[in-house]
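To the team - zinc ion complex, inputs and output below.
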Amino acid sequence: MNVNHHPSEALLLDYVSGTLGETWSLGIATHLALCPTCRRTVDVLEAMGGDLLENISPAEMSGDAAARMMARIDVSDDAQNKTGLPTLQLSKSHILPQPLLSYLGKDLADLKWQRLGMGAFQSLIQTQEKDVTARLLRIPAGKPVPEHTHRGLELTLILSGEFSDATGTYKRGDLQEADETLGHHPCAGKDKDCVCLAITDAPLRFRSLAARIVQPMLGI
Ligand SMILES: [Zn+2]
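Output:
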């Protein structure tokens, strides 16, 4: 499995330092289960220790700081293999990685799915946070999600199938981090339904009137 789209360094640092909220952390932990590259980055950041993180100002951690740290601490693939990466445990559906499966306490087929129209479904994930929403989305093969922009941050982690927009194609394990600057019109790949975990901290801003009308009823 080749993961090509990763969370930003800022999100990984927040995750490691424990300042990232529960819902965003669920997205990052699920990405980590599927992404050896980011697990390696997180290992390096964790190894640096809490003291170091506390003593570095945010300005010094900007840019390619984590990349430079990794260059200093040479973690070759061989060394990584010797330490043994955790085996990926999956649900019966082979779609939900362990962090998400434990959080939900059930597999895809046992979740409550709500119809979104155009053959798409969502399943809202209960978290302790009120201002951040997590949901699983099932978008039928070849079908688009209505074109939208964002008022806040949106993380989309692909769990099955794929979707494409102007920024590229996203497959299992790929994570898209979108904010107010990205307006997009994602479309599921034509061969398979796309299942993804989407986390948002503000309602999406749809371009089409029809989508805007149903939006409040669906809570998206
Ligand atoms: Zn990654």
